[in-house]
Amino acid sequence: MAMMIRNFELSDTDSIVEILKMNSQYGFPEVDGPEAMKRVKNCSAAIFLVCEIDGENVGVVRGNYDGSRAIIHQLSVHPAYQRRGIGTALVKEIVNRFQQMGAPTVSAMVSEKGLPFWEKVGFRKTKAFLVGNW
Ligand SMILES: CC(C)(COP(=O)(O)OP(=O)(O)OC[C@H]1O[C@@H](n2cnc3c(N)ncnc32)[C@H](O)[C@@H]1OP(=O)(O)O)[C@@H](O)C(=O)NCCC(=O)NCCS
């Protein structure tokens, strides 16, 4: 199994939408859909990575570092490929990239369901939580 983590390309769009849909992470297409992906790709503060196994896209992670805080906004692994270390590899790579950019800390936007994974990869629950205007 040849795993590769690389920068997002526009040709990845459809397969990523499919992965997000399978994981019920596509509730807001205006936030996570093709047009948003294009904007994120062009944003210099953003890191947007895709994991490929034998040529098939199986996972995605994205986040941004604005010179102060780095935050991972989205992580999703194809259901058929979960529990094989792909989520861990994606988090390691984006954290490395943020550190190379100078980020002192990295936070992540997570759901209660995802917490065991995040704790396994070295993140801990903080007192801060997310509020939204949606
Ligand atoms: C959460 C998610 C990204 C994890 O990706 P993954 O590739 O399956 O994770 P890994 O294989 O690297 O898991 C590493 C460890 O995390 C823990 N872990 C992962 N998924 C878990 C789960 N569903 N329940 C409990 N622990 C879990 C385990 O300890 C696992 O090690 P193990 O398989 O040896 O027991 C993936 O399950 C996913 O995309 N889920 C749907 C979307 C989602 O919840 N995204 C995160 C939003 S917060």
Question: What keyword list fits this structure?
Answer:
single chain, 134 residues, alpha+beta, Aminopeptidase, 5 helices, 25% strand, binds coenzyme A
Give the overall average pLDDT: 97
Helix content: 25-40%
Enumerate how many helices there are, as a single number. Answer: 5
- When the domains are counted, the total is 1
Total number of β-strand segments?
5
Strand-residue fraction? 25-35%
Give the bound compounds: coenzyme A
Which sheet architecture does the biggest sheet show?
5 strands, mixed
Pick out the low-confidence regions.
Answer: none
Rg calculated over all Cα atoms: 14 Å
The CATH superfamily is identified as: Gcn5-related N-acetyltransferase (GNAT)
Could you name the CATH topology?
Aminopeptidase
CATH architecture: 3-Layer(aba) Sandwich
Structural class: alpha+beta
Task: Chart the SSEs and their pairings.
Elements: E1 3-7, H1 13-22, H2 29-32, H3 34-41, E2 46-53, E3 56-65, E4 70-77, H4 86-101, E5 106-108, H5 115-120
Parallel strand pairs: 4-5
Antiparallel strand pairs: 1-2, 2-3, 3-4
The site of coenzyme A (COA) has 19 residues, from strand 4, helix 4 and helix 5.
Overview of the structural elements:
By secondary structure, the protein is of the alpha+beta class. It has a single domain (3-120), classed as Gcn5-related N-acetyltransferase (GNAT) (Aminopeptidase). It is 33% helix and 25% strand. The chain contains 5 helices and 5 strands. The chain has helices at residues 13-22, 29-32, 34-41, 86-101, 115-120; strands at residues 3-7, 46-53, 56-65, 70-77, 106-108. The protein has a 5-stranded mixed sheet with strand order 1-2-3-4-5, sandwiched between helices. A hairpin with a 2-residue loop joins strand 2 and strand 3 (56-65). The chain is globular. The termini are far apart. The model has no long low-confidence stretch (mean pLDDT 97). The protein binds coenzyme A. Residues 23, 25, 75-77, 82-88, 110-111, 113-114, 116-117, 120 line the site of coenzyme A.
